[in-house]
Fold QueT transporter family protein.
Amino acid sequence: MRELVTMWRDTRMIMLVAVVAAVYAALLIPFAGLVLVPGITAVRPGNVIPVIFGLMFGPAAAWGSAIGNLINDIFAGTFGPGSLFGFIGNFFFGMLGYKLWGNLGPLSSGVEPDFRENAGRQLVEFVAVAVAASAACAAIIAWGLEVLGLFPFSVLGTLIFLNNTLATVVLGPPLLYLTYPRIKRMGLLYTDLLHDEDLPDTGTGQAQTAALGLLTIAIAWVVVGIAISMGVQDVPFAADQGATFGEGGATVQIALGAIAFLIFLGLTSISGERLSELID
């Protein structure tokens, strides 16, 4: 995880944080009027940004996505206590791309994410990364709003997961095909900007174990959280947000979410990155 701290010593990485935050916010704010949950979330095609920028700009995309989402909350009128969990959720949304790519064992394509070689296997790997990052973001935010007593987990968990996944899977591959080679030629990939000692020195086995663990925990957390909401808390699927406002705060959701979040932090701390070895 040290690259998430040491990147702040490089002026170019700091500039990329600002670029990612500005682009992300600029693509979110115009759609803020297409509300899914009043005061909480809206239709967000800009959700493709964290994962594809994460694959190109690494830790700068994690910070940029978190800050960009916070800017959107302020301008869209949704800033509040839940914005803290939005910041954390979008941080992981932007971080998991470069942590998982190349480290997913049989799901990995073994090449850089430019969709020019082994495109079919790259698509499989990209979908796995997109689903994991979307699930992590959805679970963290839905759990946070459950902790705050605002909404049951399933109300936000379902919407955010589908919103993130659809935008990323549909728009991500063509955007990477068009932009990745250009960013690479400009020398702006995070692997070009960070020093070798800034990147995590993690063995292949440990990196794969951490990546597959992050994939598994992210998906399991959002699935189990939604199941508990619907089965234990008796929240209907696609429940009306107005009718469920103030029904969060379930002890079982808070406890299981805390355990999942701690496991997630532990796996992140021992995770590595393999993109630097895959780039020609």
About this structure: The first strand starts at residue 35 and ends at 37.
